Amino acid sequence: MENGKVESKGELEDILESFSRLANGLIPAFHAIQNRYGYIPKERLPEIARAFNLSQADVYGVLTFYHDFRLEPVGRHVVSVCRAEACQANGSAAVIDHLRRKLGVDFGETTADEEVTLLPTYCFGNCACGPSVAVDGKLYGRMSAERVERILRGMGASA
Ligand code: FES
């Protein structure tokens, strides 16, 4: 994933052209766009709607129904923390507190240096091994404040 602003118009058009040929290609197109840019650019929704012959309201509705799609640019690294019940019962609050304090951001925010975005997730399907955290798409189970601190240090994101 190359996070950042969508610069190349042709590249997005290529993604839309290939996925709009598929039956039910809208969600795979969202995944492809987000994998490429780190988010789905809101300003490109009219173009996406046209490619799939849908209204902008329909496209926006699908996009916002799924929690995994992002409408804002993210930092170079994305840390997603499960906030669902099983992970809460296994102590995710301590992991979340540590991340908020160390990064100086809340959920949905990116650090001032644009290095790390902290996002909530509602179950990775890794409930038996919670608390669960994903860093740049790699899933970690049995997370603790100490383990997440080591991960942050490895990313150069902790003092
Ligand atoms: S509740 Fe956290 S992974 Fe399922």
From TrEMBL:
MF GO annotations: 2 iron, 2 sulfur cluster binding; metal ion binding; oxidoreductase activity
Keyword vocabulary terms for this entry: 2Fe-2S, Iron, Iron-sulfur, Metal-binding
Protein species of origin: Methylacidimicrobium tartarophylax
Needed cofactors: [2Fe-2S] cluster
Binding site for [2Fe-2S] cluster: 82, 87, 123, 127
Family matches, as InterPro entries: NADP_DH_HndA-like, NuoE-like, NuoE_N, Thioredoxin-like_sf
Record's cofactor remark: Binds 1 [2Fe-2S] cluster.
Pfam families noted in UniProt: 2Fe-2S_thioredx
The protein's name: Formate dehydrogenase subunit gamma
Encoding gene (name): fdoI
Highest taxon, organism lineage: Bacteria
Family affiliation: Belongs to the complex I 24 kDa subunit family.
